[in-house]
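Model the whole thing, not chain by chain.
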Amino acid sequence: MTRLPDAPGIGFKPEHFEAIRATRPDLGFFEIHAENYMGAGGVPHAQLTALRADYALSLHGVGLSIGGPGRLDSDHLTRLRALIDRYHPESFSEHLAWASHGEAYLNDLLPLPYTPQTLRIVCDHIDEVQERLGCTMLLENPATYVLFEQSTLPETDFLAEVVKRTGCGLLLDVNNVFVSASNHRFDPRAYLEAFPMQAVGEIHLAGHATEDLPSGPLLIDAHCCPVAEPVWTLYAEVIARTGPRPSLIEWDNDVPALPVLLAEAARAGPVLARAGALTDA
Amino acid sequence: MPEAPFSTAFAAGLLGGAVPPGVTARDPAEAERRFAVYRNNVAHGLTRALASRFPVIERLLGAAFFTALAPLFIAAHPPASPRLFEWGAAFPDFLRTFPPLAGLPYLADVARLEMARGAAYHAADLRPLSPAALAALASTPDTARLVLHPSVQIIASDHAVGTIWAMNQPGAAPHDITDRPETVAVLRDRALNVQVWPLTSPETAFVAALRDALPLLTAAQAATRHDPRFDPAPLIGRLMQAGAFIAEPEEMP
């Protein structure tokens, strides 16, 4: 795999396809959910083939269940490999989460306790993924709503150890950091201070929803709205440290018209340009 | 005995069980409410996935009824893979045997029609038969076989399945109909649009015979048993135009 450009990108939504073809927006890359392209043919592959001809591509999986204790689904790895061989994406990423239990796919990014045992499972799974797919993957930090009493490792230590043992990169979702920090009342800047920034190959930005609970707000990673201002601030601080990185706007629910999404992505442009100027100096 | 993995109790809690042991929150009194985010994500996500596979069933039942029904189906038949577009094969039978829906006997066949549409949408890309190849095959009808594209499916029903489906499309308005047996073909055309075609009984016999890999002449004879004046040429023409015959069972590059 080559690498994604250090530029803004957006998640591809089929309803935007015609507008993208008509206007050819100036974007660094598109990201797709791998599972939506695991059918044999038809519109999804026709659209992806056309999109791929014009843009860099990030393949983002949601269903591999890397954080679960069960064996990885070998057929699912085969299907991922087929997508990589067909479309040659610049990046493949998945989540520090699980989604399948036994025979059931639960369709959500579910949390795991951070212990030496789960660390070993996650590392084994990532070794298997990288071997089967023939590439280095990026692992994304989760947004979480609960904690586990059995956890003995901070999330940042867990991720740093995964990077060290497997050689994988990280996808830093800044909104997820903000959501988890608010939900578990830790300082997002302390988390980012401890985050293994040298491994970051991509950034995610998204909007979140807020519910008011007696003890304070409950933030939900809903991908339903513009990126919150404090998340943009954290993003600028991250980019100042890492230098320019591929930066994706995720907006999967209540999807707006393409120009709205492009305007949101354009906000990352000056942040990346500033960091680029510093790096080049 | 080895300890059960953390995910066993967690998954059970998502599908109606209690908050799993060890799951907590900064304010432990809120663990239940915070765990409920995951419960809601799973229920809402799978319900919407089911609705996107069966939009006409959702419209026929109404959104509230569908949202109440979906968790029962999810608990009995959760998706087996992250490819959610393949999920739901058990939904027609679930609707057929769900006692409160006994008064709506056409629902299961409408659901079968929607399953077929989903399969057609994702079916493999195969090279359509050329007019020259068709002409060559037509010169030896007693042995020549026309191979249907894998998107082509036949849905036969004791109910007006095609009419019910069509009048519940966006922009269409339900109206009084006569509930009588109907058969439709589901297929994907050259522009990749999924189409639903009503079939007469000789047309059904003809397409079913082709699907069963019978020679062209045998298929035509099967059709004329339903209507001695049946001429397959117009139907073959429509199917050719839609790209419903394939050159050879080999994927396009």
